[in-house]
Backbone:
């Protein structure tokens, strides 16, 4: 009786298993020097990957700070207090530089107030116009305008 297709398939599989089993004993072992070199390379690769991740994180942080513009980030009050180089108060004329907290109008291109003038929203230019119109003391920055704390160039 001739062997069937199942019998041929079984022989082929047995031959493959025997070939793989005999080949596994022929693999070379890694020497101690090779293992040490491989471990050092892996450590260097991990260190390089960590350094790149830290550099990327610093770049993302710098990009976020630049995107924030001249305003201090929310919850970072320490960034608000300091020396604001090149900034003068448009209410009282103090500075430059302003020392302490400086508030910048988010609606006007160039309008800053010191910590003393901000609560009253003093505006020297509008005060001059109001005084000329016979209404001294009415020169205030518009109440509808929004202010944000400026980020200090040098933090105290």
Residues:
């Amino acid at each position: 009786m001739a062997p069937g297709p199942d019998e041929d398939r079984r022989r082929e599989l047995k031959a493959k298993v025997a070939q793989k089993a005999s080949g596994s004993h022929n693999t070379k072992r890694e020497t101690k020097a090779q293992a040490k070199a491989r471990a050092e390379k892996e450590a260097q690769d991990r260190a390089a990957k960590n350094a790149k991740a830290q550099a990327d994180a610093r770049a993302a942080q710098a990009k976020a700070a630049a995107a924030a513009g001249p305003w201090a980030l929310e919850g970072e009050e320490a960034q608000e207090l300091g020396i604001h180089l090149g900034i003068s108060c448009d209410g009282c004329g103090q500075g430059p530089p302003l020392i302490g907290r400086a508030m910048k109008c988010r609606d006007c291109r160039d309008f800053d107030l010191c910590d003393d003038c901000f609560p009253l929203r003093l505006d020297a230019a509008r005060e001059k116009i109001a005084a000329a119109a016979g209404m001294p003391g009415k020169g205030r920055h518009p109440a509808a305008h929004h202010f944000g704390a400026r980020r200090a160039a040098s933090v105290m």
